[in-house]
Write a structure and sequence with these properties.
The chain is of the alpha/beta class. It has 2 domains: 202 residues, P-loop containing nucleotide triphosphate hydrolases (Rossmann fold, 3-Layer(aba) Sandwich); 71 residues, no CATH class. Helix content is 29%, strand content 30%. It has 8 helices and 13 strands. The chain has a 6-stranded mixed beta sheet, sandwiched between helices. A 4-stranded antiparallel beta sheet has the order 2-1-4-5, with no helix packed on it. A 3-stranded antiparallel beta sheet has the order 11-13-12. Helix 4 runs antiparallel to helix 5. The longest helix has 17 residues. The protein starts with a strand and ends in a 9-residue tail after the last helix.
Length: 281
Amino acid sequence: MIQLQNIRFGYHPKNILFEDVSMRMEAGHIYGLLGKNGAGKTTLLKIMTGLLFPNSGTSEILGLNAPLRKAEALRDIFFLQEEIYVPHLTIEGYLKSYVPFYPYFNHERFQYYMSELEMDGCHGYADKFSHGQKKKFLIAFALATNTKVLIMDEPTNGLDIPSKSAFRRIMASAADENRVILISTHQVRDLHSLIDMVTILERGRILLNTSVYDITSKLFFGQYVEGRKAYYQEEFAGGISAIMDNPNGEDSKIDLELFFNAMMHNSKEIAALFTEKPSSL
């Protein structure tokens, strides 16, 4: 669905952000693109969708050259950017203007998503909504387009805690085997228990692109056990949370925030565990 091959990109010849970046994302998964602010997440998303042109290398989406932005691809791609814009239209006017671009738009699902996000009682012009309301409206619209590729950049920014819970719930219901969903965020907790593929970006490099299953197969998440190899650990009120080796394949639940912090501090050693059999590369 999405493939980057040997991407080199910089906003200035003397300031190269990406150097030889390659990765692949397949349908049937929800990817979490994780990284600190300034890691290059938004730039990478724009290269994927053809809004920025790489200096060299290729960017393909749905089997087509992304920079060409052909109509047959655009009707099956929705990119919800972090900096949202809503024109001076009512919700009905917005639907009338933008739905024709998305042939698989489902009006019933749109109403369902609006209800789940507590937006079904909103009326008037959408550009007069609060920031959170605008974001929830656009999230509902994005999901209802039923595009094969759905990309969201920091979608939970501006949402309150109940809305973040509703977001995770409806995102899980929107996933299917014919669709790739990519969510970019630096708020790691917001994707906890939602994603099944983890992609970590740091300083213009893909540190890791693998499945949650691969991670929990090779690493054990839990309270630190003395004498067991720990790749990373953090103190908390009741003890020490750690990421440890997992030679016997014990089951544990991934702590996404702990894992992200571990990759920021010990990326080489942890990433080396996945080089023999990388997922979706």
